[in-house]
């Protein structure tokens, strides 16, 4: 029951955020950037402004909806980059071994020794703030966990009989890795990718909070929290709703990843039982 509950609740929360982001132009009450009216600055939540307004009189509800687009785009695309890099390096290192395995291992250990957020901050300090820079910074900093997982899976799978049979049939190394090894390690990769998306959403919010992410006035949950620091006591709703959006998104992704792990990893399911 717990497995199904995690998967169901996580799936519902994540789907709700995705739908909100996709349908933002139709669900939003106003334009999140252009419709600013100082006459309605710091209006509390009510029937006209469901989530209230910020210091510029912009509708927070509309900005939270459009902010979902940025957070999901960064989370999905950056984790996709991380997954491609990690799987390519880990799969090849585990299958070929030798000097290539030593190089990949050394590079992975170096990446694990550096906090990913610090590395992302260094990259963003070199690049100009923006969506492309965020994808590059977050897409190059979190692949080490996927690499370790792919390498360990390749080491255990390459001695299996079907892999040896593929070698006898004359399959190339690339074909064996793509058709024999990769399909058998997709489950754990999907799980770690789902969990990594939640981390990417948090990292994007942290970078935007520090002014190194999406540039204002475009809505980003992290930049909205940064703008709300001065009004946290006088107008707390300005920070509450972007914070809730981050919380719901990350919670949904973590529950979804936990449920997928229990389904795709029989050993984990047996231990919990």
Automatic annotation (TrEMBL):
Coiled coil: none annotated. Residues 68-257 form the ABC transmembrane type-1 domain. GO terms for biological process: transmembrane transport. Its main location: membrane. InterPro entries: BP-dependent_transpt_permease, MetI-like, MetI-like_sf. The chain crosses the membrane at residues 7-28, 185-214, 234-256. GO terms for cellular component: plasma membrane. Belongs to the binding-protein-dependent transport system permease family. This is Peptide/nickel transport system permease protein. It comes from Microvirga guangxiensis.
